[in-house]
């Protein structure tokens, strides 16, 4: 199987969908130039400037513009250069895009995809590095996607574009040049399905976006200690595939959630809450979170390293979870502590 | 002056204007009897909305704002369904999911009402963008008040409309003329430093017309020009229709300050009460329209009163329909978050 980069997966998804559906338009600031990282590079040569359209630096309006266009029959794919800038367009996203289908009693559909880069890396600082996914999962009417692999980036973007709801497609800047298996041209990956990235029986690590990679590395180190971690990538945060998460937790009885967003009010809080509501009796330990501190994202590369949780923090949380023995619990398979 | 239309068309506009007036009066009366929540009425602006929207064609879209009842009625949305929606009943156009602040009827060309001030301009601009990119000969009309010009999204929108030459008409119904230049905090407030709204449009190169929004012929002429420009590929137009603020709209909550309108005041000034003389003699655009129609001998006063009686009966029936309708079932009403 051929390999591709995450950013190529995104570009391929755009190209294949543009070729498939004449109502698609790619909009955004500098999209004809490829955007800041080249995701849309080359599209204007292939599809002309009436389909790949540069917009002014007007986030409040270009989101609403895409919503208005979507209800007339276009299928816009809008790039917001950095997720941080979506704050300027929250009225159109939250009050309009998300609510139109509901408020109109189903008279309107808003088939809109908003792509945006987020995440820490490269010293971009507090206005270009946030992970804001939890905000959007809080809004009824929005779907939220956060792919980790190149093939997911491609297959999930295709599904997002084909979806008749507003979808927020969150790309991690630090994954753009990562490589992985290439997805076949006619393949899509449905929204709302988590995937088990690594099977294990002792602990479940649920990790979001780039943190999946960190969790997989942590899992390898834990395996050396005899702890087999199951790593789950939710891929779509809204709607959330809670069944896959809970079924893993039922097997392992331990859950650690890792994300790059700040811990307070993060998506981990929601997932932890839902898991304990469904499977409290099957949890051997409190659900633990490994997430960023309650701080703006710093700029210095040294501070960035302190801000983003690493493998060691995940490993510590896993050890802490496994060390926790809840009284009266039906025994679960205990790891053999070969590493100690 | 009367719009440059046939007498039948002018009389149809009269019927719509009276219908809007009676719809709103009934609603205010109803609000005096029971709590129906927050709403805004269109009284005083009928002669902007009616002639402006009269010219639209099937497939054109209008995006409106919180003072929306008149706009929808002018395009033929049934009053009974609107009352039902305003009362939150299942027989409303959106089954109670939207209410007065989000009234819509796509089949009548109203995709949505945005009640976030300034929320409507990007949407209307986007619909025009969609029409243009899809090669559809449609026009998008953006209806908003002067307050929306205080929002940044409006400036972003007209910039895009100007650059892309979009088929959009920005129709600003300025009902804060007396308030222009007021300081923030006063009500009704228009807290723009600019005192002439069309000055805000000039730098974008979009043709801007300032008209008397109480003069049906001026509205008709301006909208005709704007529609011709939009349909001919000439791009956007901005119209400031200068209307008056009805005395009943001066308090935060509407009050039937000038009473139920007696259309006979138009031809019998002795019926005009002492109070609110200026309103009845000069400002009420519906009465002015009736005077012009009578002067032009298009219809007998008795026929106007007969039409009015019929409309009033329809409005009462509409209110009864809404009151008698069931509330939506919660288990159904809370579906539909996602398509």
Describe the structure.
Chain A has helices at residues 6-20, 43-47, 59-72, 90-97, 100-103, 133-137, 150-162, 211-224, 242-252, 267-279, 301-307, 311-323; strands at residues 3-5, 24-28, 52-54, 75-82, 113-118, 143-145, 167-172, 179-181, 195-198, 203-207, 229-233, 236-238, 255-262, 288-292. With 340 residues, chain A is of the alpha/beta class. In chain A, the strands form three sheets. Chain A has a seven-stranded mixed beta sheet, sandwiched between helices. In chain A, strands 9-11-10-13-14 form a five-stranded mixed beta sheet, with helices on both faces. In chain A, helix 8 links the parallel strand 10 and strand 11. Chain A is globular and about 60 Å long. Chain B has one domain: Rossmann fold (3-Layer(aba) Sandwich), CATH 3.40.50. Chain B has helices spanning 7-33, 46-54, 69-74, 79-86, 120-133, 152-164, 216-231, 277-283, 285-295, 301-324, 330-333, and strands spanning 61-63, 140-145, 168-174, 208-212, 237-242. A five-stranded parallel beta sheet of chain B has the order 1-2-3-5-4, sandwiched between helices. In chain B, helix 6 (152-164) links the parallel strand 2 and strand 3. In chain B, helix 2 (46-54) runs parallel beside helix 7 (216-231) and helix 4 (79-86) packs across helix 10. Chain B is globular. Mean pLDDT of chain B is 93; it is low at 183-188. The A-B interface holds A 23, 25, 50, 55-56, 58, 60-74, 91-92, 95-96, 100-110, 140-141, 143, 164-165, 239 and B 61, 63, 93-95, 97-98, 102, 104-106, 111-112, 114, 116, 118-119, 121-131, 133-134, 136, 138, 140, 152-153, 156-157, 159-160, 163, 336-339.
